[in-house]
Write a structure and sequence with these properties.
mainly alpha, 4 helices
Length: 80
């Protein structure tokens, strides 16, 4: 039988502290015999903001035209 419990770190510490001494020592032994694998921080080379922006998405001519037409329509609507 298998089950999963989602508890916070502090709750886990409190639960371990409540264990009898022999069980705490066994728990410690089990933890020390298994290597801890932390997520490795992925480092990317520094990139200039200009290079970052140049890689970004751009509008097509059709999209620019639609935006301009929408802006004109909004301007006319605001003047009324």
């Amino acid at each position: 039988m298998q089950f999963q419990v989602d508890i916070g770190f502090e709750e886990l510490l409190k639960a371990v502290e409540k264990l009898p001494e022999d069980q705490r020592l066994r728990f410690k032994e089990v933890l020390e015999n298994k290597p801890v694998k932390l997520k490795e921080k992925v480092t990317k080379p520094e990139e200039s903001i200009e290079a970052f922006l140049l890689r970004g998405p751009t509008f097509s001519e059709e999209q620019i035209k639609a935006i301009e037409e929408t802006q004109k329509a909004l301007n006319r609507w605001q003047k009324k």
